[in-house]
Amino acid sequence: MKCGASKTSEGNTKKSLSCDDECSRLERNRKLALALNIDPEAHKDDHVPYSTETLRFFRENSKWAQQQEREFRVFAADEAEKRLRFKPMPSHQRTFLHSLAEDFGLDSESMDPEPHRHVAVFKTPRFVMAPMKTLAECVRIRLNAEAAAASAIEEQRRIRSNNDAFNAFLLTHPRFGLTVEELRSELAAHLEATPGLAFNISFLPSEEIVIKAGPISASTNISATSIEAAVKAMKSAMANTISAKKFASSCQLCTLDPSLNILRRELDLSGTTDGWSRVAANAAAPRVAPKLFGVGQKSVYTVLGSRLKEAKKKKKEEETEKAKVEEAVVEDWEEEVRREEEEGGREGAEREKSESVNNGVEATNLAP
Question: What is the pTM of this model?
Answer without folding.
Answer: 0.39
